[in-house]
């Protein structure tokens, strides 16, 4: 299983970014997968996830600003981030559990300047 995250960058507060996570070795149509983030000095936290049936969950701090989606044909997960805030600054990871083992993509850095 490999997860390749991309799309991070430096953006001003109020701006937007779209993260992508290309998955191989698993089928996103039958696996729950999510986006997580980790800010310096803090624990990694769940931002949003999407189940095999397409049900999406977002944490309260990003509801109304972020959208998680999945392209089954491309086996790719997305996170559309709008109205970004400085507190959204973190390394963002896509992650999933498959056959009892956790898999993580390499983080993509999102930096929001005030």
Nearest-integer average pLDDT: 96
Encode the helix/strand succession as letters.
Answer: EEEEEEEEEEE
Note the beta-strand portion. over 45%
Counted by DSSP, the helix tally is 0
Low-confidence stretches: none
Structural class comes to mainly beta
Assign a percent range to the helix content.
Answer: under 10%
Distance N terminus to C terminus?
37 Å
The shape, in one word, is: globular
How would a textbook summarize the main sheet? 7 strands, mixed
Computed CA radius of gyration, to the nearest angstrom: 13 Å
Tell me the total number of β-strands: 11
Describe this structure in words.
- It is globular, with a radius of gyration of 13 Å.
- It has no helices and 11 strands.
- Strands 2, 4, 5, 6, 9, 10 and 11 form a 7-stranded mixed sheet that branches.
- A hairpin with a 2-residue loop joins strand 9 and strand 10.
- It has 114 residues and is an all-beta fold.
- The model has no long low-confidence stretch (mean pLDDT 96).
């Amino acid at each position: 299983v490999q997860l390749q995250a991309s799309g991070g960058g430096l953006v001003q507060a109020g701006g937007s970014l779209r993260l992508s996570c290309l998955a191989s070795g698993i089928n996103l149509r039958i696996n729950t997968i999510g986006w997580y983030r980790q800010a310096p000095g803090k624990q990694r936290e769940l931002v949003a996830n999407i189940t095999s049936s397409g049900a999406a969950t977002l944490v309260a701090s990003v509801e109304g600003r972020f959208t998680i989606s999945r392209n089954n044909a491309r086996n790719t997960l997305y996170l559309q981030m709008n109205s970004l805030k400085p507190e959204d600054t973190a390394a963002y990871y896509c992650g999933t559990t498959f056959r009892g083992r956790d898999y993580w993509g390499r983080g993509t850095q999102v930096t929001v300047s005030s």
